[in-house]
Amino acid sequence: MIKRIACLAGLAVAMSAGAAEPMAAGLIVKYRDARGVRALALSAPPVGDEVRARAASVKSLARRLGSSIDYRGIIPSGALAFASRRPMKLSVALALSRNVSQDAAVEYAEPDLLLKPLSVSSHARFAGQWALHGSTMAGGALNVADAWRITRGGGVTVAVLDSGYRPHRDLARNVLPGHTFISDADNARNSVGREAGAVDPGTYRAEDECDADSPASDSNWHGTQVAGIIAANGAVAGVAPESRILPVRVLGRCGGKISDVVAALYWAAGLPVAGVPDNTSPARIVNLSLGAELPCMHSMRRAIADLFRRNVLVVAAAGNAARNARNSMPASCPGVLSVAASDRNGNIAYYSNYGAMVSMTAPGGDQSRGPDEGILVVSNDGRTVPGGDSYDHSQGTSMAAPHVAGVAALALAANPALTAADLRNLLIRTARPAPGACPGCSAGIVDAAAVVGEAARRRSGTVR
């Protein structure tokens, strides 16, 4: 009980440091004797009496506290997910979580937070992709050309949990059939919520459409940009241009629920999820360019640990709040490879989170120095609904993380025997010191040539 309350208190402290209060979509409740419940989550039988009684108890307590929530199902970790009729302020969700946690049978109860994308908004365009150049040309670059002499990532699948993708000409041939995991049909902009396919219909929204304080915004084509950084193979080159992208749509017009992201993590790794066809192309690497400025929560921690045990490496953006990443989720979750953003010269970007929870840095861009100082990405020219293929410059730790995910894909292609722990340690150990001002950058800048070179030598048995 003390540990549960301390975790919720940590969320409250982190919340007070931010300007706008985060929103929650509901509640996640895990009971201590959840083994049988977890089996229900994997096999999707009718809801049992025990689950029905527990769901009714939580709903009744919420009603007494002035909140209206509905039981929505069991996520793969065995926790029960509840959705509110309208997004709740985090303070309301925390109060409800604390009350539910008073039940001795409850292992934890926590808000089902809404996560957001972490962007600040022969390859004909390769000359403009400074992030992929040699470090002698740009101090913050990846040294990718030397890595490409060994491999271009063929045979490796990278899952991108994001807003989905547009079938851009530079990307489409490397994209596998994915899945939409957004459980709310309005947020997903479809009639059913979860469904086969992960094509992005646009994340545009009107003012106050998501909650009372949400601003209007255009579509950002965030998932397409992230996927392209990893695996584009046309006028723009991805870091691993022969790897495959498994798109998993978890972010809609109002963001994405933790419970949906957790379910998507299990599915991306090839684990069964109730009500969803099995994934026949499981990923060894998962990219999360999304998050919230709050400490790691139980549900996310458990999912990432389960994936790590299955040799699936999760790469996450460190966050764009220009503060310590210890209060950024999922970047602060144990086992994650957390990536801060650097500029062309190897300085930490002005917006990037930093600190001991950061594993390394990678190019994220700094457009305060000029538009072209961002990362050249594949995109779409539609402001709301999809338009035509386009290119753009973006910045953010959202752009930094997929550079590392792409390098990880190159390393796995060079040596498929690497475990998740091997891969994580190799990426960190071969990082080169940042040439610019980079306090709190941990290992330094990812170096594709060094990572892939050592991975290949390990495979051939020549590492000393």
From TrEMBL:
The subcellular localization recorded is: Secreted
Query: What's the name of the protein?
Result: Peptidase
Q: Which UniProt keywords apply?
A: Hydrolase, Protease, Secreted, Serine protease, Signal, Zymogen
Bilayer-crossing regions: none
Provide the active-site residues from the annotation: 162, 222, 398
For the region Disordered, give the residue spans: 194-218
Where does it sit, as one GO cellular component term? extracellular region
The protein's GO terms of the molecular function aspect are: serine-type endopeptidase activity
The organism of origin for this protein: Paludibacterium paludis
Q: Which family does it belong to?
A: Belongs to the peptidase S8 family.
Secretion signal span: 1-19
SUPFAM superfamilies (alphabetical): Subtilisin-like (SSF52743)
Q: Name one Pfam family in it.
A: Peptidase_S8
Look up the domain of life of the source.
Bacteria
Give the main localization category. secreted
**Stretches assigned to the Peptidase S8/S53 domain:** 153-432
Q: Provide a GO biological process annotation.
A: proteolysis
